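Dear H.,

Thanks for agreeing to be a second pair of eyes. The structure we're designing against is below in token form, covering all 492 positions.
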């Protein structure tokens, strides 16, 4: 047994010598076969005459059925533009967490990986991603010009830059979304109702006309009540935050703030009056049709997304401010592996994705002639079979307008970004390690209270008092103090 174990260890050590990032260009596989998206790397630098293949790991609905044909077309274009080929692994939504964790923890070769604020700081801490601050300007100057400086700040950790932010709806705006016919039947001025107090007579009239709850929500409730007001420092705990409008980076106990309590009071009043579905605290998933709900996005999404998903005409009215924080920017980023052989080429690729409309359209819509075609300068989708997730790839502002759209919805998204209120802690990275145990305990406590609190099912003030008693016994005040200490150091 000892000899067998020794042999296995020797094999693993030899194999590790050949692990790397990037790969040799290989001949296209036969038509109709699906690439695994996991070529290994033993290529020499591009100067040797070989064309490096960069591997990009991202999330979506799995590998496209026509991936090989798409790759052949894209490789030809990318080879001419920046001298690379591209291999993309599209991991299914349900497998993403497991697959991503395995890649990072085992140092499996890749060049670029999609990431977000759920894992970003931890992956930076363990050395998974490259600091690109020293090579960005020389290799992606157009990318620097395209993406606002605040967005780059949101991707920094301890002075290093570890990601390229996806410049899209990188700010966050919440909306009251209505079935247009139902809300217009009330005869009330819903377009001027931007607060929960304003909306109360509207949902009351909808309830009276419908004879049932117009506001249908699942057990997650309406996080917008606090997320549109407070930056949670990407700590994952709704109970702590810094006000977007307070002016100073002061960390507070969010559920004790008057603006949050006022909206939670109204939410409970709605529930008591029957305006909210009675099973909200136990409903795992909201139905596709809801006469009224709150969602993050932009107003024209009512026409392009929310309405079509419900099968009705919908309208959306802004609720609260448009805000910008580390978390809103970090909702979509792409990082370069710390062991990437061609980080300069990886940056050039990300710049092309964000500045070249043909590359952007190909990632967003699929293979030209099979998934989409250009008609008079616009895109006509030939099917909806393309399984890559557009929001993970690059800016929305290079995506070509579709023939079905009478307006460019991305213009509104860009305008929202430009008017967003930035968090006072934009660019600050909270090191949660000193309070990791307290944080996990408080997160678990909030998870128990959240379904009844954020759906209005129970009276909020007594519920919050009980919740905060448990949290303080588990270290909430220590978390608040540590976050403030770090912010004060950062702000010096």
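And this is the sequence the design step returned. I haven't edited it by hand at all.
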């Amino acid at each position: 047994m000892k000899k067998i174990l020794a042999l296995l260890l020797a094999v693993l050590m030899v194999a590790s010598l050949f692990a790397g990032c990037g790969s040799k260009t290989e001949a296209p596989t036969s038509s109709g076969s699906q690439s695994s998206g996991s070529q290994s790397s033993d290529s020499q630098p591009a100067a040797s005459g070989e064309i490096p293949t960069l591997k990009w790991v991202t999330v979506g609905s799995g590998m496209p059925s026509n991936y090989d044909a798409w790759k052949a077309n894209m490789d030809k274009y990318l080879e001419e533009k920046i001298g690379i080929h591209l291999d993309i692994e599209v991991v299914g939504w349900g497998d993403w967490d497991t697959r991503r964790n395995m890649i990072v923890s085992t140092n499996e070769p890749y060049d670029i990986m999609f990431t977000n604020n759920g894992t970003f700081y931890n992956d930076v801490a363990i050395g998974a991603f490259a600091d690109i601050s020293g090579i960005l300007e020389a290799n992606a100057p157009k990318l620097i010009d395209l993406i606002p400086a605040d967005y780059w700040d949101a991707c920094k950790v301890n002075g290093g830059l570890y990601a390229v932010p996806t410049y899209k709806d990188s700010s966050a705006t919440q909306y009251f979304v209505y079935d247009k016919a139902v809300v217009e039947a009330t005869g009330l001025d819903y377009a001027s109702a931007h607060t929960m107090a304003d909306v109360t007579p509207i949902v009351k009239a909808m309830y009276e006309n419908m004879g049932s709850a117009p506001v249908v929500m699942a057990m997650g409730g309406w996080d917008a009540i606090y997320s549109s007001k407070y930056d949670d420092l990407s700590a994952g705990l709704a109970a702590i935050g810094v006000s977007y409008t307070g002016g100073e980076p002061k960390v507070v106990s969010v559920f004790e703030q008057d603006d949050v309590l006022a909206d939670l009071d109204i939410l409970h009043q709605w529930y008591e009056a029957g305006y909210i579905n009675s099973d909200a605290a136990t409903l795992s998933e909201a139905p596709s049709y809801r006469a009224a709900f709150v969602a993050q996005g932009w107003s024209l999404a009512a026409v392009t997304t929310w309405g079509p998903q419900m099968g009705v005409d919908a309208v959306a009215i802004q609720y609260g401010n448009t805000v910008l924080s580390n978390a809103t920017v970090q909702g979509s980023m792409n990082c370069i592996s710390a062991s990437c052989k061609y980080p300069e080429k990886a940056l050039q690729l990300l710049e092309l994705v964000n500045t070249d409309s043909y590359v952007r359209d190909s990632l967003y819509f699929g293979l030209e002639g099979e998934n989409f075609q250009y008609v008079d300068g616009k895109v006509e989708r030939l099917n909806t079979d393309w399984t890559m997730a557009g929001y993970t790839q690059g800016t929305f502002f290079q995506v070509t307008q579709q023939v079905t759209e009478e307006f460019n919805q991305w213009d509104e998204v860009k305008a929202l970004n430009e008017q967003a209120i930035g968090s006072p802690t934009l660019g600050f990275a909270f090191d949660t390690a000193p309070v990791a145990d307290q944080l996990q305990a408080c997160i678990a406590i909030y998870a128990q209270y959240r379904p009844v609190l954020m759906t209005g099912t129970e009276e909020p003030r007594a519920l919050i008092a009980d919740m905060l008693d448990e949290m303080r016994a588990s270290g909430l005040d220590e978390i608040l103090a540590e976050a403030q200490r770090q912010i004060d150091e950062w702000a010096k």
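Two observations from my side: DSSP finds 19 helices and 16 strands in the chain. Residues 220 and 447 are 9 Å apart (CA to CA).

Warmly,
E.
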